[in-house]
Amino acid sequence: MVMSEIFGSLVFNDTVMQERLPKYTYKELKTCIENGDPISLSCATVIANAMKDWAIEKGCTHFTHWFQPMTGITAEKHDAFIQPTPDGKVIMEFSGKELIKGEPDASSFPSGGIRATFEARGYTTWDPTSYAFVKDHTLCIPTAFVSYTGEVLDKKTPLLKSMEDLSNKACRILKLFGKNVRKVVTTVGPEQEYFLIDKSVYEKRKDLIFTGRTLFGAPAPKGQELEDHYFGTIKQRVVKYMSDLDIELWKLGVLAKTKHNEVAPAQHELAPIFTQSSVSTDANQLTMEMMKKIASRHGMACLLHEKPFAGVNGSGKHNNWSMSTDTGENLLEPGDTPEDNAQFLLFLVAVLKAVDDYQDLLRVSVASAGNDHRLGANEAPPAIVSVFLGEELDGILTAIAEDRTYSKRARCDYEIGVSSLPKFKKDTTDRNRTSPFAFTGNKFEFRMLGSSFSIAGPNIILNTIVAESLDQFADELEGAEDFMSAVKALIKKTFIAHKRIVFNGNGYSDEWVKEAEKRGLLNLQSSPEALPYFRTAKNIALFEKHGIFSALEVESRTDILLENYSKVLNIEALTMIDMTAKDIMPAVTTYIKELSDTAISAKAVGIDAKTQVTVAKKLSDLCAAGYKQLDTLKTKVHKAETISNIQDKAMYYRTDVLPAMEALRKTADEMEVNTAEKYWPFPTYGDILFSIKE
Ligand code: ADP
Ligand code: MG
Predict the structure, then answer these.
(1) pLDDT digits (tens, 9 = 90+) for 587-607
(2) CB 3.0 to 4.6 Å from 495: which of 123, 138, 350, 397, for a disulfide?
């Protein structure tokens, strides 16, 4: 198959619409999307019919409203197109009404107490800005999900609201620069990390099955220390998987572009070409789903957890973000002379101000039980939010702040030292991998996201906080007598007020933690510490002002996130208890028996059996210690279950249950290294991390 036939072949995209819709319907749809107007029922009826015919040709029998509830994953309920006819047969039908509105039972999705379970009604409504597509013989229609009383229950709706809001505020600013821009879109390119392991080892690990991460496991003899995996040659099984994945994603219109091995053994990355945030969000959800599905087809399991293995790197997601006008201008493109580019500098300091004023919200947007294992662990950015600007931009803004002219450091040709290789222009700044929020040439890269996240949450926050900066700027500049000098003064004032958020050094160092504290930056180490910041008065006021969330929605979302944290830890603790009692202890006991039997037989024939006795004793002591720790863990889990305050409960899991889990793990891992391999009840780190052999 040729690429032009593959790409988007399962998407009801613009080309298909132009081919299949009557001209006036297509036009009405386009106008409605552009102006954000609702689509008439008669128009929807025509579209539904065309969609159905197209989908049936692609082998579909069902349709579903595809939505993104607060679970962080997508949801779908499939309905067949069939309609009975009086002669006892069926015809395939799909009405405009069915396209526009669905009524899934909302009671079993997290709502954070917005609805009691008896008020089950929820609606899904068609989002015509995102294309319908075919998956599993089903026509999937991207939708928003709201409650009967109008509260938003999903991640898509607030994302769309935040994009529109930022667009309005950015257009106000651009108008002052004399530009006639009707729309600004936020763009995102999320780099996705993941692990691939053989299915046979996955299936033998209850912890991977129930929690997505290993709760036990001593380090393998080889980890990532040789640095031989990053960008290394990709194993054949993985190559086949990656090609298959690319093709399936391309069919769905996902712009999968770059693939390579990552730092840890068995770790890989996929990066798409960026597109507008809402489309990128849908595409990333599909990417994660396809990664798992295709892995299974290849006899492998794809792990998207943030920290599947202790001691080697975990997985994150880099959210590359910028703003672009409908005329194709990237607002974060510095150009050749950023020092003379007032518009660029203004948008740049708008982001700086936003990140400084709302560090707490950015931290909240990446908080989860899984991500707590990464942030600040010397492999991922610290939990402290700061911005990397690089030498040149920092130099320019500092010069402005000090009323100096910026003396440009010329971009020099980079000499590789081999004359046959072409020379290229050296970037003005090196990269900084340790920064949580780095300027990378013409976009910002928000690097704190966990690999399993929906990117909707972080982008809702990012868009809203930048919109707030731009709103304040527009208020100030719209009344200015001399616009350009007002812009310059505003850039200066803003940089001076917010330069504490700029840090170009090593984010992994201890000095930075101290320095950040001196600067008054927040260092929220864990989710239960971070999440309450979501609902501070200042933040609720922000969301209400921008029409993103009501106070009730913020409250409920905070509760959902806190409850999710407790539930995840509860499942992990119960899995550990189960694995210890049912697998580890019995296995070790059997090995102790073998050692003891051997010692007895050895002694009977006059052989010294000190070694067997020593190991048996050691394991026996570890069993005793492990048993105690198991008991403590059980007691703490019971206690946690009795705490009714959602915040207190999450905090108790963090301060009491988690350390009890860690203590038990330590003992179990010590047992592992002292137990003969054939007795150990599940695959070890070595078995798992190197399970894909060729
Ligand atoms: P890295 O060097 O960080 O691994 P990659 O080249 O793998 O970077 O990925 C960079 C990502 O940034 C890609 O997904 C790319 O499409 C995206 N990107 C580039 N320009 C923009 C932009 N203007 N807005 C949003 N994302 C962008
Ligand atoms: Mg990156």
Answers:
(1) 999 999 999 999 999 999 999
(2) 397
